Amino acid sequence: MGDAQPILGESLELDLSHIQTEDGEPVDNIFSEKQMRLLTESLYASWQDEDEQPKAFSAFANVGLFYALHQAPLVPDVMVALDVVARPDPSDKKTLSYFLWEFGKPPDIVVEIVSNREGGEDTTKMKLYAQIGVAYYAIYDPDCKLSKRPLRVFERHANAYVEFLDPSWLPRLGLGLCLWKGHYEHHKAVWLRWVDSQKKMLKTGAEGLKAARDDQKEAKLAEKRAKEAEQQAKEAARQAHERAEALAQKLRDMGLDP
Question: In this structure, are residues 39 and 192 in contact, taking their beta carbons and an 8 Å threshold?
Fold first, then answer.
């Protein structure tokens, strides 16, 4: 990282013409691409605050993180920044990547997905993210290429990372992480997912739509059951009334006052 430091300040105009924000390199593989989208999509589809209002944040997949003016960017697989609203403008280069001096803060969490042993996820990248000031750093290693554990999450303390023992809740982020075996876009795998304070996974748009449809079906079924129960109660009452009338008639036939 050297001596270069992030440059902050809204009034500072910088010449970014020499900075390359797109390198044309493809992502590692289809699984990594789907995993990135799963993490970002579920946030935009389901993340709410305590008042059930959409959270203010920005989530990015495979976007350059420029932390110093004369340093090559890092390109996290996924990064999330709280209280940051990105408005990309194709005609304004400074809006097309994550420039620390533009957003005024580092991302709150970075997630790296391991596909080989050459990415430096638990060495050089980890050190840089800590120096930049990223509060949480998650390494998802589905094939256990770097560790025996597929998921490791770290929290920044004194410019270094300390492993977080329970990644299901990250208080400074207001979310947690878990591993989930299931289908995403017709592909069955073990996926990295966000969870809320109740340990419930944040739903994707498709999952939210399915849940809404299931709730609607359940409501209709409950309404049908209630109507059937009402009809049964009415029928039982009618039969009881008929039995009572028949008994009363028998008593009258016997000369008794029912």
Answer: yes
3-state secondary structure 207-254: HHHHHHHHHHHHHHHHHHHHHHHHHHHHHHHHHHHHHHHHHHHHHHHC
* Burial class for 103, CB neighbours closer than 10 Å (0-12, 13-18, 19+): middle
Helix (H) or strand (E) holding 109: strand 109-113
Q: How far is 128 from 112, CA to CA, in rounded Å?
A: 13
Q: How many residues does the chain have?
A: 258
Q: Per residue in 64-107, pLDDT tens?
A: 999 998 889 999 999 999 999 888 888 888 889 999 999 999 99
For the chain, what is the total number of helices (H) and then of strands (E)?
A: 4, 10
Give the residue ranges of the chain where pLDDT is below 50: 1-12, 21
Just give the CATH number of 30-203: 3.90.1570
State the pTM of this model.
0.77
In the chain, domain spans: 30-203, 204-258
**């609607």: which residue's tokens?**
216
**pLDDT recorded at residue 60:** 96
Kindly give the pairing relationship between strand 78-82 and strand 136-140.
unpaired
Mean of the per-residue pLDDT values of the chain = 87
